[in-house]
Specification:
It contains 3 helices and no strands. It is mainly α. The model has no long low-confidence stretch (mean pLDDT 85).
């Protein structure tokens, strides 16, 4: 099990996914929400709220 000792902000979803699985990874399709949507689909919906990961600003 991978456990971070403190919070860490990755530069991208893919960088985070690659760290977790230990190989190159497309985080936009590997990260899933509880409803089964991938990060890319969620992001494409344009429903990002200020302060949520991926929100600009």
């Amino acid at each position: 099990m991978l456990v971070f000792a403190s919070d860490y902000s990755f530069t991208s979803a893919s960088a985070a996914a690659a760290t977790v699985i230990g190989a190159s990874a497309n985080g936009r399709i590997l990260w899933k929400l509880v409803d089964g949507r991938c990060y890319a689909d969620w992001e494409a919906e344009g429903t990002l709220v200020q302060g949520e990961p991926g929100a600009n600003g």
